[in-house]
Write a structure and sequence with these properties.
mainly alpha
Length: about 300
């Protein structure tokens, strides 16, 4: 893998991150007056002016933008308008709660979706295939908030087995994880079936079987590695959204993670907190895409040779 390729990817990542931060900054600053969100709609003109002067919001937008970029260059994400605490510290406090929810979701989604899709491709046009694709369509079509509400009604309201919100004990993870894993497993199942069915119909498989290789060995050694590249792409997109992917679910279950914090910060126009979360999400997506590119070269040597 050449140094030029790595530098090219790094340059694209930095440009993408800059565009993301710039768009977020402009969108937040043009949306509404943060002073009214913090002080209340009944705040007088003098109070609003003092607030803007204190936080540097009375300066021209271009000057605010340059100062903002200068702070970010030194990893200074500013202070929260609501609490005056460092935004980065506030965000890092919520990261463990989000990761503790998203990592089990990822493991469960892959463990269910990939084998289900592979089995559906092997048993193409059978009852197993129809059942797997029905699950995939329903899991992809039904929104997370509806699945979460139905699970709350079933397990909390009707049966009374689980707490509907917050973190109480290990059972608090059951409903949020099932809510997100159902949708993600459906995506993995659809892509796994499509990729596996395409590989199974390739002349390579017929050649392997004609040479006397057992079916199970041909599937394991030839079909699965070639079907892995599309699945790596899907996995990269999922892990790239591992920080911000649970926004809806966290709000449904009142989960104390980054998703809920992001919604609250946007509502309060807490610019520093929103910008910090957006940068963290952007960096996660960029790193996930880089790892996906590296995984391509590891699985398929032809891709690695093109980068030399």
């Amino acid at each position: 893998m050449s140094r030029r390729w790595l530098l090219n990817r790094l340059g694209r990542a930095l440009v993408t991150l800059w565009l993301l931060m710039s768009f977020t900054f402009v969108a937040l600053n043009l949306s509404s007056e943060p002073a009214l969100q913090v002080l209340g709609p009944d705040a007088g003109p003098e109070a609003v002016a003092d607030f803007n002067r204190l936080w540097g919001l009375d300066r021209p937008l271009w000057e605010q933008y340059l100062r903002h970029l200068g702070r970010l260059a030194t990893f200074d994400f500013g202070l929260s308008y609501r609490t005056s605490d460092p935004a980065l510290a506030m965000v890092w406090e919520r990261v463990p709660a989000t990761l503790s929810l998203m990592l089990p979701t990822a493991l469960l989604a892959v463990a269910i979706g990939v084998p289900l899709g592979v089995l559906a491709a092997i048993r193409k046009n059978s009852v197993v295939d129809c059942a797997a694709m029905t699950f995939a369509i329903l899991g992809f079509a039904v929104p997370n908030f509806l699945v979460g509400i139905l699970l709350i009604y079933l397990f909390s309201v009707w049966l009374g087995w689980l707490q509907p919100s917050g973190i109480v004990d290990w059972r608090s993870w059951i409903m949020p994880v099932l809510t997100m894993a159902s949708a993600e497993a459906a995506v993995f199942a659809r892509f796994a079936r499509s990729a596996m069915a395409e590989v199974l119909g390739h002349p390579m498989m017929r050649t392997a079987l004609a040479n006397g290789i057992p079916w199970s060995q041909a599937v394991r050694e030839h079909a699965l590695p070639n079907a892995a590249i599309p699945l790596i792409t899907v996995a990269g997109l999922f892990f790239g959204s591992i920080i911000g992917g649970g926004v809806i679910t966290e709000n449904v279950f009142a989960w104390p993670g980054l998703g809920r914090m992001l919604v609250d910060a946007v509502s309060a126009r807490d610019y520093a907190v929103v910008q910090t979360i957006v940068v963290l999400i952007g960096m996660t997506m960029i790193l996930a895409n880089l790892f996906v590119d590296l995984a391509y070269g590891w699985i398929d040597p032809r891709i690695r040779d093109q980068r030399q």
